[in-house]
């Protein structure tokens, strides 16, 4: 797939009929080494040598489009005639904003060249932002917030959307965990071993399907190596805010025909320190024993976030067969994580003498009468990835990705198994890279996925379900002068079926009013198989309207099939402390409020427009994105104002008993969580709009200033606001890098969020300060960097509005990280 300049030069001397060669320099004429030069739409690529020179085999095309990129420079596209033998002189201009290509899309996609707004974290920038969860790693990227379910579970929120609307992938395959079922569930991927993380903001449904109607986060690693080039990396660190220790390593090597990769990590931390108390004072007139109980809990939780300890470890092993036209590789990965679930500090009536194995139960800090909830996660993941170049009249290449994931996590309550979540997924995706026709190039994508999800136990709030998806998509792009046009369409077939649940029906006829509960009947409620056919179409253009400037416009019509949890949920969700009800159940507010099974659900329909303006070269670079997203039949979780005790109930213990006994388990008692607030999934026409802005100014060679900000507004069309929409925020950073030293100081301000949904509380504004200092020591074996970072330097109390736990779990307090990382 990749040929060095030397080998290509030898091929040229031995009689190669046509080739494209040239030199890449900067604006002053200095050669740029290590620049990537590739033929767009193919896998043919070369890198420049120390004199900036390259040679490419271009015998297969009379006209080729070259794409050139190098770190610290603005990307460039050059049209060449394959029959021309003259050496190309290519000049790259410096860029204050880092530009990195997205790896897994068949169309041009990078920070500055895509119609769809993109962010890519890689290299030292990624290493400095790595955190224990994916959401916390990405939370300071423009347009991205975090669900922050305490420090132990956190998923990305893109433009106010999260859950099943934001697809999380690993090497472009679904992570296939339970993180989109509830915010208390951990994303089953690890940033410590990632090589880059790609964020596609806005509908990315053409590439990834209807589950990406809000965006995509793709975690890229080298577990399936594409080359045998020897490279390694390591990192060790300590964080004072929770006494956390972490370590990771990765190595790729091999020979002429075989490459192998191995990586691993471990992370362990205690409860997080926080400013003040975890739980905000209740706005009530509690008297007597209950009031004293609350005061005691406030006193106990001061200074720490109880039940927030965690430990995790994992590894990946992979190997690839290297061919003349690409590679075929297979990898296996194992991930384990045990963590507390914060926010469960209310009194619990049972006492248990049993102790959970390991030290985490003691470290979680739960008090004698508090409810302790742990999550024990295990995931096995197989991936087969292949990228092959072809030479025929129809196809220029075939990229294949196949994944199998076996995921489970157990919620442990006071040392007893509460609920088991399982997700077994098989996914296959084939991208057929099409030969250029009339200037158009792109890919035909075929994809199939089957996901078996089950929640078994007393708090199994959603029924076991199976989701099958088949999809076909066509994506094309064409460059005409200063315009890059991108179009595409995708259609899917989604089938969802769920197991029956125990259901208490109520007779609410006039003649039986007043006869309380006499006409309730318990029976199995059978769900019909639901079929959806969502489709998406998109058109975009990138216009280079002036030197160093371009504009991007993207129009997307996308549909999304609802997730199984949005449809079938009916029961207590212990993680969020709520009673969740799916969209298939209609709430009737009468003298005796109740739910009826309606079997009515529609696809979500999004019409989105994105406009981007960019300055991509020079000492000052900036990006401004404006977006407007009108969503029909929007699924959102509404607080009804009722408690679970006001309904007839649902016997989850009886429903779970058969499954539990099938596993050889016994339920000795039931967990009584008292009255829980009832949240129901409803559909309503909504609109989300906002802006994102980023500016980078290279004041001098060592000194750079970065400013950024974003704003999101989410409303219901019939009036009112959507819940958990992040507030307006502004941030800035000053960085210095010279003679091996790197230093940075950052500030971010989150404004008050008072545009809230019915029964939702507002969130105060706050300002966070951070700083870092590092020194890199070069050697013949590689570079080693020693670093010191400080977060929340003023020990500010900060609560995340998008979090279900904003009133019970603030962000961590002041903390310092000391560590060392290196490459070899």
TrEMBL record:
Residues 1-19 form the signal peptide. It is found in: Cell outer membrane. It is a multi-pass membrane protein. Residues 285-304, 343-374, 645-672 are annotated as: Disordered. It comes from the Bacteria. Residues 285-297, 347-374, 647-672 have a biased composition (Basic and acidic residues). Pfam families: CarboxypepD_reg, Plug, TonB_dep_Rec_b-barrel. InterPro entries: Beta-barrel_TonB, Beta-barrel_TonB_sf, CarboxyPept-like_regulatory, Plug_dom, Plug_dom_sf, TonB-dep_rcpt-like. Keywords: Cell outer membrane, Membrane, Receptor, Signal, TonB box, Transmembrane, Transmembrane beta strand, Transport. Residues 112-216 form the TonB-dependent receptor plug domain. Residues 374-793 form the TonB-dependent receptor-like beta-barrel domain. Belongs to the TonB-dependent receptor family. This is TonB-dependent receptor.
């Amino acid at each position: 797939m990749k040929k060095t300049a030397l080998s290509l030069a030898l091929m040229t001397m031995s009689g190669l009929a046509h080739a494209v060669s040239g030199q890449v320099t900067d604006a002053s004429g200095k050669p740029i080494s290590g620049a990537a030069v590739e033929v767009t739409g193919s896998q043919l690529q070369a890198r420049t040598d120390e004199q900036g020179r390259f040679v490419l085999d271009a015998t297969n095309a009379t006209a080729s489009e070259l794409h050139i990129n190098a770190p610290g420079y603005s990307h460039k596209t050059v049209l060449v005639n394959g029959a021309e033998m003259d050496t190309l002189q290519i000049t790259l201009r410096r860029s204050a904003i880092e530009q990195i290509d997205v790896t897994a899309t068949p169309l041009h996609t990078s920070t500055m060249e895509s119609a769809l707004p993109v962010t890519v974290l890689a290299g030292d920038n990624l290493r400095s932002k790595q955190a224990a969860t994916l959401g916390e790693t990405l939370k300071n990227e423009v347009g991205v917030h975090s669900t922050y379910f305490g420090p132990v579970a956190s998923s990305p929120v893109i433009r106010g959307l999260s859950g099943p609307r934001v697809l999380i992938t690993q090497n472009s395959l679904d992570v296939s965990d339970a993180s989109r079922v509830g915010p208390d569930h951990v994303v089953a991927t690890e940033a410590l071993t990632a090589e880059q993380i790609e964020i596609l903001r806005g509908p990315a449904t053409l590439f990834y399907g209807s589950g990406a109607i809000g965006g995509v986060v793709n975690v890229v690693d080298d577990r399936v190596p594409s080359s045998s080039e020897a490279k390694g990396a390591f990192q060790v660190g300590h964080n004072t805010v929770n006494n956390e220790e972490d370590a990771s390593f990765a190595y790729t090597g091999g020979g002429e025909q075989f490459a192998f990769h191995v990586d691993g990590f471990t992370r362990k931390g205690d409860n997080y320190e926080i400013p003040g108390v975890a739980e905000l004072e209740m706005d009530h007139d509690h008297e007597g024993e209950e009031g004293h109980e609350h005061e005691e809990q406030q006193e106990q939780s001061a200074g720490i976030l109880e039940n927030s300890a965690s430990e995790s470890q994992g590894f990946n092993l992979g190997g690839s067969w290297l061919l003349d036209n690409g590679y075929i590789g297979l990898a296996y990965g194992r991930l384990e994580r045990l963590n507390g679930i914060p926010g469960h500090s209310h009194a619990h009536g049972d006492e248990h003498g049993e102790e959970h194995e390991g030290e985490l139960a003691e470290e979680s800090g739960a008090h004698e009468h508090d409810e302790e909830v742990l999550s024990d996660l295990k995931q096995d993941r197989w991936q087969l990835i292949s990228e092959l170049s072809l030479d025929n009249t129809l196809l220029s290449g075939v990229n294949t990705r196949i994944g199998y994931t076996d995921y489970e996590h157990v919620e442990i309550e006071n040392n007893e198994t509460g609920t088991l979540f399982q997700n077994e997924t098989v996914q296959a995706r084939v991208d057929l890279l099409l030969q250029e026709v009339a200037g158009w190039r792109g890919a035909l994508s075929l994809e199939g996925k089957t996901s078996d999800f089950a929640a078994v136990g007393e708090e199994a709030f959603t029924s076991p379900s199976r989701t099958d998806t088949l999809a076909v998509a066509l994506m094309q792009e064409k460059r005409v002068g200063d315009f890059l046009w991108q179009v595409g369409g995708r259609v899917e077939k989604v089938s969802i079926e769920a197991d029956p649940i125990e259901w208490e029906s109520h007779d609410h006829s006039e003649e039986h009013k007043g006869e309380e509960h006499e006409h309730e009947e318990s029976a199995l409620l059978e769900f019909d198989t639901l079929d959806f056919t969502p489709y998406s179409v998109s058109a975009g253009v990138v216009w280079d309207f002036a030197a160093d400037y371009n504009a991007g416009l993207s129009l997307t019509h996308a549909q999304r099939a609802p997730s199984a949890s949005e449809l079938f949920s009916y029961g207590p969700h212990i993680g969020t402390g709520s009673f969740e009800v799916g969209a298939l159940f209609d709430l009737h507010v009468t003298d005796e409020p109740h739910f009826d099974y309606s079997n009515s659900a529609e696809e979500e329909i999004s019409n989105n427009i994105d406009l981007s303006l960019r300055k991509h070269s020079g000492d000052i670079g900036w990006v401004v994105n404006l977006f407007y997203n009108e969503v029909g039949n929007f699924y959102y979780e509404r607080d009804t104002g009722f408690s679970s005790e006001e309904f007839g109930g649902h016997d989850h213990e009886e429903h779970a008993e058969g499954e539990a006994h099938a596993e050889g388990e016994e339920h000795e008692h039931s967990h009584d969580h008292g009255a829980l607030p009832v949240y129901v999934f409803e559909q309503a026409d909504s609109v989300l709009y906002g802006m994102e802005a980023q500016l980078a100014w290279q004041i001098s060679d060592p000194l750079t200033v970065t400013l950024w900000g974003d704003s999101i507004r989410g409303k219901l069309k019939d009036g009112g606001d959507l819940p958990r929409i992040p507030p307006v925020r502004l941030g800035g950073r000053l960085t210095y890098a010279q003679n091996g030293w790197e230093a940075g100081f950052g500030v971010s301000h989150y404004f008050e969020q008072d545009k809230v949904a019915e029964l939702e509380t507002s969130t105060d504004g706050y300002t966070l300060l951070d700083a870092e200092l590092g020194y890199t020591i070069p050697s013949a074996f590689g570079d080693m960097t020693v670093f010191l970072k400080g977060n929340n330097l003023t020990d500010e109390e900060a609560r995340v509005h998008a979090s279900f736990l904003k009133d019970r779990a603030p962000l961590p307090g002041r903390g310092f990280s000391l560590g060392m990382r290196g490459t070899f």
